[in-house]
Each structure stands twice: as structure tokens, then as C-alpha cells.
Amino acid sequence: MNISRENIGELDLLIKIDINEDDYAENVAKQLKDYQKKASIPGFRPGKAPMGMIQRMYKSAIVADEVQYMLSQSLYKYIDDEKLDIIGSPLSNDEKTGTIDFKNDKNFVFYFDAALVPEVKLAWDKVDTPLYQIKVNPKDIDKQIEELTRRYGKFETPETVGENDFVYGKIEELDKDGNVKEGGVSKFVSFDLSAIKNHDEIAPLFVGKKAEESVVFNASKAFTAAEMEDKFSLEAAAAKKFKSDVKMTISGVSRITPHEVNDEFFKKVFPKAEVKDLAAFRKLLSADMEKSYNEQADIFFVNGARKQLIDNFNATMPEAFLKRWMLSRDENLNAETLNAEWEEKYVPSLKWEMVDVALNKIKPINPTDNEIVDEIKNILLENDQMRDGEDEKAQNERIEKEARSIAAERENVRQIVDRLYARKSAELFKEQLKPEPQKVTIKEFGEKVK
């Protein structure tokens, strides 16, 4: 077997693979003997059919399978051995290869088209995305404790509505005369009375109501435009203009009695920590919140920096090959659609992938299998308790086994993979850009992200 390549232009390659009879003859002969032993042909005892007959019946198919297998194995081994950084996967060049006759030919020549990933020079000097450092203040901690007491509180479904309950029901838009508007908003919604705008004005209208009873109120006084856009399935412009009264027919109500802030509550929030008092709890909670928000700040930083790298992408792409490769991958895609959507839909994602290749050359940012398993182990250990008769070593072995089982199904761990990818990307971008962190509050960060 002989493999060679020819450079066609700057990035396009033509790979030629010569397979001779000597390359596959031994394996074909072994398979023919196996067929002879197992063949059951009328007029011959099992395993006694003449080899000539076996060859006429099966040889061309066996040769075809063996050559195709060798072709695939040798092609990708050649790419690895030569360290060719190709885009996508090679495509058969049927025009140059011509018709293959496995029945009569003994030596075969195959041609494949491939394309190299362009050399991407990352424009670090054009990146000026800020890196925010979140500082949690006492009011943020107070708000988080309030949310946690509700999360770990007692859930009930009372008959009548209280001023801070969660209500469910159907909302219908009313006209100026107070009648249900034909063609108006009609949606099943749910919301927390404690969180609505003008709580002191709207919530009392619901208090004491039961299922099947109705409440009329002005939607714009209860919800923000963004909330109405989501709850009523409106376009953004329509949500901003929506000023109508609505009638809500209650279908259900739920209530959460907040958990008391005590030792039991501390243990539920931080099961692995020894929390002695409220001050220690607030300190732990503050650190936990800052860690979480700063992970978000890192993602915001990475996404902004990556976008600027993509905006300043100046490498040439092997467009003809890429279009052909994409058409080969998607039978529902045609050339007309691909050409129409090329610049807007496909080029940005290709630039993303090529920037990703360039970043990985500086420092690997794609999570390894072991990194994924370790991350799963840490998550499992946070909420795991030793079982009867189990020591720390046995616990770790059990967690290791569980983690590897979970990691085996990548769809189960997509969020973990994304989190690790973001974390490693942030490390790389910080090393390259050396940004000076800008300290902001949670509120300020939210406004900047918006």
C-alpha cells in the first residue's frame, strides 16, 4: 500500500491511496476458507464445496469489504501520522477514482479530497472585554437567605389565597367595557403574589379567593413588560404597549411557609459544613454566592473576548470544500439553501470552530474524560453519606464507579462538560489578556450583562 498527497492551492489536499493485491490477499484467503467450512450448498456435503465455487460466489464481496476497511483505517492513520490538521473529514473524489471493479481488478487506486484548518492568528490586541469581579453585600445575603428559607420551607395547597401565595389560572384580556376581548390575550399563567409589582394594590384583590373565582386587575401594574412578553407570549413591542385590564380565573393556589433560620436550616443548606451560628452561615453563604456569580462573570468575559476574536478573524477558509462537506453530512440540506445562508448562519460557526482550534493549540481547553469524571465525583461527594461498614477508601471507590458510569453517557453530563470548558477557557483568556478585574455589585453586574 502507498499513500501520498498533493497540495491543491493553499489549504486543499488531494490524497491518493494505492492498494495492491498483496495488501489484502492473505485476509481474503482466510475469509474464503471460513466461508468454505461453513457453506451449505446443494449437491455438496457441508464444508466440502470446491474453493473455486466459493470464490465465484463470495470473493468479490469479500475483497470489497476488506479493501474498504483497509482504506478507512489507512486514511485516518495517515492523517494522524502526518499530523494533518484537517477540517471535517475527507471526501471521496469519485471523478478521479473512477469506477471500481472488485470482481475483475486486483489493484485499486482511490482519491480523497481534504482541507487543512487555516492558520488563525488570534488578534489578542483587539480584545478589550472587561472582567468583572462580583462583591456580595449584606443586602444580597439577606435576599438570598429569604429565598433559601422559602426553598426549604413547608409546601401547602390552601383553599383560599393569601397575600404571598403562588396562584395558577387562566388570564383573559378585557375590553374597555370590561368584557372578554375577542382575539385578545388568553393564557394559563402562574405567578408569585409576593413578587409582583404594586404588591400592596394587586395582592389584596386575590386574598380570600378560591378556585374557580375570578379577579380583575391591570396587567401592566402587576407585571413588567418582559414578564408579560413571557407569560402572555407577546412580541416585545406589544408587551410594552399592553395596558389592558385582565380577568384571572383561579384554578389553584400553593403556599410556602418559610423555614425558620436555625441549626436545622443551616444543615440543609450546607450539609457538609459545621455552621455554629448565623454569622458563620452568612460568611459561608457570601463565599458561595461570590463563587457562583464570578463563574458567570468569567463566562461573560470569555464570550465577549471570543466574539471580538471572531469579529477580527482574518484567515482564508476553504469554502468550496466546506460547502461540499456540509452537503455530504445533511441529506436535508441543498446547495441553494446552503449558499443563501452561508454568510449569516454557517460562516460564524465555522469561525468559532477555527478559533477554538487555535485556542487549543495554546492550551487544551476541551475537557478530558478524567476531568469530567473528577467533576462528577465532586458533585456526588457533596451530597453523599458513608454507608454502613464503609470507610473513606470504600466510599471513594463507589463514587468513582458511579461517576464513570454517569460520564459514559455524554448527554447526561452536557452541562458539566460546558462548565469545565468555560472554566478552562477563562483560565486561558486570563493568561493571554491579563485583565484588571473591575469590582461590581450583583445589581451592577446584572445591568452590564443586560
Summarize the structure.
51% of the residues lie in helices and 15% in strands. By secondary structure, it is α+β, with helices and mostly antiparallel strands. It is elongated.
Describe this structure in words.
The structure is a single chain. The protein has 450 residues and is of the alpha+beta class. It folds into 3 domains: 2-115, 2-Layer Sandwich (Alpha-Beta Plaits), CATH 3.30.70.1050; 154-257, Transcription elongation factor, GreA/GreB, C-terminal domain (Chitinase A, domain 3); 270-316 and 363-449, no CATH class. Helix content is 51%, strand content 15%. The chain contains 16 helices and 11 strands. The strands form 3 sheets. Strands 6, 7, 8, 9 and 10 form a 5-stranded antiparallel β-sheet that branches. Strands 1-2-4-3 form a 4-stranded antiparallel β-sheet. A two-stranded parallel sheet has the order 5-11. Helix 13 (369-382) crosses helix 14 (392-407). The longest helix is centred in the middle third of the chain and has 34 residues, at 278-311. It is elongated. The mean pLDDT is 92.
Annotation keywords:
16 helices, alpha+beta, five-stranded antiparallel β-sheet, 450 residues, Chitinase A, domain 3, four-stranded antiparallel β-sheet, 3 domains, Alpha-Beta Plaits, 51% helix, 11 strands
